[in-house]
Amino acid sequence: MAQNILVYWHGIVGIAGKGPNYMERYDPNRTIGELIQAMTTARLNERKTIQIIKFKYGNVSAVNPSDPYWSHNTKLSEYLAVMGLENKNLFLIYTLV
Questions:
Q1: Strand 59-63 versus strand 55-56 pairing type
Q2: How far apart are CA 60 and CA 2, in angstroms?
Q3: How far apart are CA 83 and CA 41, in angstroms?
Q4: What is the per-residue pLDDT across 56-94, written as a single tens digit (0 to 9) for each?
Q5: Domain spans of the chain?
Q6: pLDDT, tens only, 7-20
Q7: Which end of the chain offers a freer environment for a tag, N or C, measured as fewer CB atoms within 10 Å?
Q8: In the CATH scheme, what architecture does the domain 4-96 have?
Q9: Rounded Cα gap, residues 24 and 42, in angstroms
Q10: Considering the entire predicted model, what is its pTM?
Q11: Which residues contact 20 (CB under 8 A, 6 or more apart)?
């Protein structure tokens, strides 16, 4: 079972000692849209739109350009079923568009 949600900005993924930019306890019924709203309230959006990148598991550089972002209606439990856990945490990457 996941414990936390760790959200990193795409520009710092892979840099030792950086991130996460946002963290909260895991709630399987919460949607990506609700998570994005909380991140916007925390002012991580810099007057742009936050999107969660739909990367290939194990390769954060592999993104389908025709469908690059997760739907805001996706529940975190659905995301977990597809992406799995990283050290008991749910790992997400966001970008600003």
A1: antiparallel
A2: 20
A3: 26
A4: 877 777 888 899 999 999 999 999 998 888 778 999 999
A5: 4-96
A6: 999 877 767 777 78
A7: N
A8: Roll (3.10)
A9: 12
A10: 0.87
A11: 6, 7, 8
